[in-house]
Fold this sequence. Notes:
The structure is a homodimer.
Chain A: E1 8-11, E2 19-26, E3 31-37, E4 42-48, H1 56-73, E5 79-87, E6 91-92, E7 97-98, H2 112-120, E8 124-128, H3 129-140, E9 149-154, E10 158-164, E11 167-168, H4 200-203, H5 205-217, H6 222-228, H7 235-243, H8 247-271, E12 275-279, H9 286-300, H10 302-307, E13 317-320, H11 327-338
Parallel strand pairs in A: 2-5, 5-8, 9-12, 12-13
Antiparallel strand pairs in A: 1-4, 2-3, 3-4, 6-7, 9-10, 10-11
Amino acid sequence: MKEKGKRKKEKVKSPDASGFAIGVDLGGTNLRIAAVDEGGKLLEKITTDTGIARPRDEVIAEMCRAIQALAKKRKADGKLAGVGVGVPGIIDLKSGMLRGSPNLAGWHDYPVREEIERRLGTRVMLENDANAAALGEKWLGAGREVDDLCMITLGTGVGGGIVLGGRIWHGMTGMAGELGHITVEPEGPPCGCGNRGCLEQFASAKAIERMSRETAAGGNAPALARVAAKRGFSSETVCQMAEAGDSAAQEIFGRVGRALGIVLAGLVNTFNLPMYVIGGGVADAWEMFSPAMLEEVRRRSFVYVATCSGASGPKTVITRARLGSDAGLFGAARLALQGLRG
Amino acid sequence: MKEKGKRKKEKVKSPDASGFAIGVDLGGTNLRIAAVDEGGKLLEKITTDTGIARPRDEVIAEMCRAIQALAKKRKADGKLAGVGVGVPGIIDLKSGMLRGSPNLAGWHDYPVREEIERRLGTRVMLENDANAAALGEKWLGAGREVDDLCMITLGTGVGGGIVLGGRIWHGMTGMAGELGHITVEPEGPPCGCGNRGCLEQFASAKAIERMSRETAAGGNAPALARVAAKRGFSSETVCQMAEAGDSAAQEIFGRVGRALGIVLAGLVNTFNLPMYVIGGGVADAWEMFSPAMLEEVRRRSFVYVATCSGASGPKTVITRARLGSDAGLFGAARLALQGLRG
């Protein structure tokens, strides 16, 4: 177990920072750890193959070892302000435990934060990965110029994070920002969360694959049917087909955009924020889904119409994320620097 | 014009407060003005028949006269902290102007706040009436024990107000909280806001009347058809019929509850607040729509399920408003006491 994690290291020159934090992004297949200074400069980044799918104790041991090694190595960069850990699950703010999630077997009702703190002897902030990504984008990405933003992350599932006044809005128990489970179609496809027609059922990678198979089964999309039958078929394949002009694939991204637009319109009418950011792997298909998305927001939100690019006064910006998969890593480090509990 | 406003006065004994504010609620048919002390005690309330449907200059003149008379009269109660005015319209925070609204002909692009301030020589806070009601409920009503709440007001239309950290969440331009225009049914009835299937199209008094007429026209609800054909038919009539056991009328309130539940579930998943308050005249039909509403929230929000009365830890409360039509009046006074601009 000890030497299992393959490491790729990226060294960056040390800045003159007065302190730094360590951000951790615990994904499905790998664990990434970065030292980031107060100015947002990446000091060093490590990637190991110990993702959350591996046994819990193994993941925690590897994580703590890597954090300690990195902290020791970066001692010259100043004081370690703390450690932030982004995790793909629902976190109970108070207890620092994960609530049940399909991807988190064995982590439920286990005192994750406490256990990491005990091993490291330092303060640890545990955070939902989409919340961490939203904070990362606010700090160093698309949202640098605003104090408030809402981010939707389109990955295997759909996550969300809300930043108000520069800080993550956690809500009462840390469960705020579950934007992927807002209803789009009241009688739509059932969702793992218990609801039907959630945004996640239309705008996640899994949903794109499901919709593609449904379309293929309909018999009127032969090219899509051929591709969908192959091994390794994924939402990226559908995106490539849409880009190449396949109308069935384009139609699927139209549905992605429409669902996102319905939810964004509701968020704009609710929050009236200066910025909404779309991130996650599926956001790479931005060109394919954003026209339908923006058309839908315009049609469904008079608050957007009153504040979009054609209007006078402050603007509502709907944009792509800028930090890619590093958003959560930076956000986790930022959390530690902010000293937020949770 | 001078002596037109009929006044009903309610005197209350003066407290030992160090100051007071004047709250104004400018409704469709009347204008209500109250002096409220810092402890939330109502010192005096005046109602005139000069509502926002009357000519703009007449309304403003009457309002200012009544405010001045009340301020003079309550001089012994301490310093006048300011004046808050709740208006049924979208307010531009920065300019203090009203944005267009079907009920506000002649008020659009007119510097309402500036004009009132000029006449009174005192600071004036102009606020959307649903926002003011939400703040009133937080201060003295259902939300006294919480810092954060979301309120939906079911009146002729559907409004909303969000209170975070004890203050109204205005958003970037003061347009936040337009919860009545969140999409419930993407292909539902067209709404005046430009969208389709807004909450307002299912949960407002007007929507209840429309749905009743539609049901009556269907031919399978003879009792409802008889009532709907009469003069003075209103949502209250439908509520009385539902209470008396008419299944068609009950079905309509089931639809009201379902739509509210869909929107509330999204709000719970988004905000994770301790409290959601339902107010406005239609909330009097609480017993008729709340079972369907709560069932829908439970089905559609795992955040609610994790925090509802059966779960351990902090609770999500969904409840009726407590202050009735005075919520906006108290909230407007509170705004002035908080010294919030807008």
